[in-house]
Amino acid sequence: MVNAGSSSLKLRLLDGDDSLLADEDLPAAADGFEEGAAGSIVGRLDAVDAVGHRFVHGGPRLRGPARLDAELEDYLRTLVDLAPLHQPRALAGVALIRRLLPSVPSVACVDTAFHATLPGAAATYAVPAEWRERYGVRRYGFHGLSHAYAARRAAELLARRVDELRTVTCHLGAGASLAAVRFGASVDTTMGFTPMEGVVMATRSGSVDPGMLLWLQERAGLTAAAMTDALDRRSGVLALAGTADMREVLRAAGGGAPDACLALDVYVHRLRAAVAAMAAAMDGLDALVFTGGVGEHAAGVRSAAGGGLGFLGVAVDEPRNRAVQGDADVSTPGARVRTLVVRAREDLEIARQVRAVLRDEMS
Question: Strand 106-110 vs strand 51-55: parallel, antiparallel, or unpaired?
Answer without folding.
Answer: parallel
